[in-house]
Amino acid sequence: MATPVAAINEYESKIKLLYLQQIEVDRASKHSLKWVVLGGFTMQSPPNEALPLVMLSWFFECDEVKNQGFDGLTGRITVQVNNGTTWTNSAIDCDLTRSVHDVRLNIDIPPFAGPLQALQMRYQFNLIPYSNILPEIHIDPIFKASDKTDAILLVDGMKLHVNKSYLAMHSDFFQSLFMGNFAENSMEEIPIKDVSYQDFHSLLKVVYPRPEFPNDKKCEKLLELADRFLMPGVTDHVEQHLLTNTQLENDRCLWMADRYSLQKLREHCISRIQCSQDLTIIRNSPVFCEYSDFTKARILEKIIDKVEWDEFKRECLDHHHSMIRRSNGVGQIDYKRVRFQ
Known about the structure:
By secondary structure, this protein is of the alpha+beta class. The chain is 33% helix and 29% strand. The chain folds into three domains: 2-132, Apoptosis, Tumor Necrosis Factor Receptor Associated Protein 2, Chain A; 135-231, Potassium Channel Kv1.1, Chain A (2-Layer Sandwich), CATH 3.30.710; 249-341. It is globular, with a radius of gyration of 27 Å. Mean pLDDT is 84; it is low at 1-7 and 333-341. This is BTB domain-containing protein. InterPro entries: BTB/POZ_dom, SKP1/BTB/POZ_sf. Residues 149-208 form the BTB domain.
């Protein structure tokens, strides 16, 4: 449970302009919080009308807040967008827990009359820093001593009774620890350092009977621990979740795919880059600089393929229109004369 303290970050922006490409529209700081806002809009094409879709991204730098002993900030961002005649209101709740935390919001704008060059936008927020009060921890019954356990792991001050063979089957790390010539193999209690009981419990529960499958909040930590403890089964479960059930943003999923060599997820994320706005979000992401050269090259290949395909479709369409103009006079194309140059 989180206990909030007095609000220290209230902010109301001036009116900003949004254009048909995503650009930086605001950069500010207050107290210990810094942030950048990217914004733009694209035109949707439902039948008989054009609808703008506004895309906004806030990138908050929370390091200084966390250095003061807080675990995060919570609150709401409210936004108003004007299409020239009316204001549209929208809001999003946020819980900022990472050092650099991004918040995304898409807003459908009512139809308008005439050409639209820019939209007006303003936003405000009230963010409250908080510190987590850790609940009393009760050890899971699956880690109690029984006739099926033959080793004790000491994790975060908690004693976990485990079965060596079962853990070794799922983890090369524990296979080496239990079966190899290590000093820990002869210890009554084997210390597992630099991991909390809650995180280690979540890791083992993925592969234990009656498993608990990954969710968006646990994915990143599970991948980190699966990499450390050499548990490919956990990695596979997380990747499957990110491929099918996640609500995380594409740039964050791509970062995890790149960092932990999740090939299917990497290709899936890259395939979701369908327009210039998608690419801008990726390029302006705080994790873009951490992408490997290989992943950046794959993104470039995607862009080249997209451009070449768009050019091909444009050439086909131009040729189609040319054939109509050169048709037999009744609006029918003489397909015997159709030739691609």
